[in-house]
Amino acid sequence: MSLDKSKIKNILVVKFGGIGDILLTTPVFPNIRAYFPDAVINVLTLRNARDILIDNPYITRAFTYDPNEDKSWCLIRNIRKQKYDLIIDLYGNPRTALITFISGAKYRFGFKFRGRNYAYNRSVMGRGGTVHNVEFNLDALNALGIPIVSRDLYLPLNIVHREFADSFIRSSGLEGKKIIGISKTGGWESKRYKSNDYIELIDKLNGIYDANFILFWGTKKEREDCEYIAKSIRAGNAFVIPDSPIKYLGALIQKCSLVIGNDSGPLHIAVAVGTPTLGIYGPTNPKLQGPYGEKNLSVVKEELNCLYCNLLECDIGNICMTELSKDRIIEKVKELISLNDIELKVRS
């Protein structure tokens, strides 16, 4: 499946999905750039994830597609005009397979999903469901003979994003103490650790560490949940962040000594900006979608036989979340602190 490297000058990577999905794809780009240093490397993604890719030094340009404004044929015509030499379809749904097939590219790569093989002349059986999503994405490069020189997630931040974070820290009186980030976000209710459980967890952590807390949210409901949590913390040291686009959120997360949260985009943002991360998991499998890297951890209620069900709604009370011991989470927090040599002041 090796490529004629000399004939590849124009590359398109296709990846749709949410914020977390795109962040878990970012390790692909430095590897392609290292192997094709002079090539044009474009990315086709969904509109809501484009901000993740802006100013990424490993790619040339990010194009977007909005399925709510279906203009597939217009998109296909534009892609054909670009005359790509190599298209790597990392998403593999019927639409992206069709886009790849009609692109006119000499090399068309995709995973061997049922009903998609017609679209590709380079393919491999994906290890989806058995390896972390980062490794699944890198399987494409392995199959194409592109060496893996980096596995790091990447989110570019600049001085504007960092000044925004600094301003929030100063205005909230958070200077002088280490900060623990709490992410209440999550696409499904069944993935979310509950508000009252977070209150109890933060109160317990306050009994151990002399730190402040900032609470991350994405939707209006999540903001309301965070405001409820902040008002309920006895020590009064929990603060809700302002409305923060992705990279501004990344700069706030980078100010934290560690982040604790549900399976969601902010956990992967934390990994991308180098903040040690503890994921709280239940319906989804941290071995597949957990915070990536040896310095990050996850916690689950291990004795349950219904873990990793991937159900949006649970008919037995979401017990993977509601019955997950706070003490078990705190054990993992201590392990994360030790693993990363984090200096948190312990109360006497």
Question: Could you explain the architecture of this structure?
Answer:
The chain has 348 residues and is α/β, with parallel strands linked by helices. It folds into two domains: 5-143, Glycogen Phosphorylase B (Rossmann fold, 3-Layer(aba) Sandwich), CATH 3.40.50.2000; 160-340, 3-Layer(aba) Sandwich (Rossmann fold), CATH 3.40.50. The chain is 36% helix and 16% strand. The protein contains 14 helices and twelve strands. The protein has a six-stranded parallel β-sheet with strand order 3-2-1-4-5-6, with helices on both faces. Strands 9-8-7-10-11-12 form a six-stranded parallel β-sheet, with helices on both faces. α8 packs parallel to α9 and α10 packs across α11. The chain is globular. The relative contact order is 0.12. The model has no long low-confidence stretch (mean pLDDT 93).
Computed Rg: 21 Å
Q: What is the CATH homology-level superfamily of the largest domain?
A: Glycogen Phosphorylase B
Overall average pLDDT: 93
Instruction: Give the CATH class of the largest domain.
Output: Alpha Beta
Query: What is the terminal-to-terminal distance?
Result: 61 Å
Main attributes of the structure:
single chain; 348 residues; alpha/beta; Rossmann fold; 2 domains; six-stranded parallel β-sheet; 12 strands; 36% helix
Question: What are the SSEs and their pairings?
Answer:
Blueprint (H helix, E strand, L loop, with lengths): L9 E5 L4 H5 L4 H8 L4 E7 L3 H4 L7 E5 L6 H11 L3 E4 L4 H9 L4 E5 L10 E3 L8 H11 L15 H13 L7 E5 L11 H12 L5 E5 L3 H13 L5 E3 L5 H9 L3 E5 L2 H8 L4 E4 L5 H4 L7 E3 L19 H4 L3 H15 L8
Parallel strand pairs: 1-2, 1-4, 2-3, 4-5, 5-6, 7-8, 7-10, 8-9, 10-11, 11-12
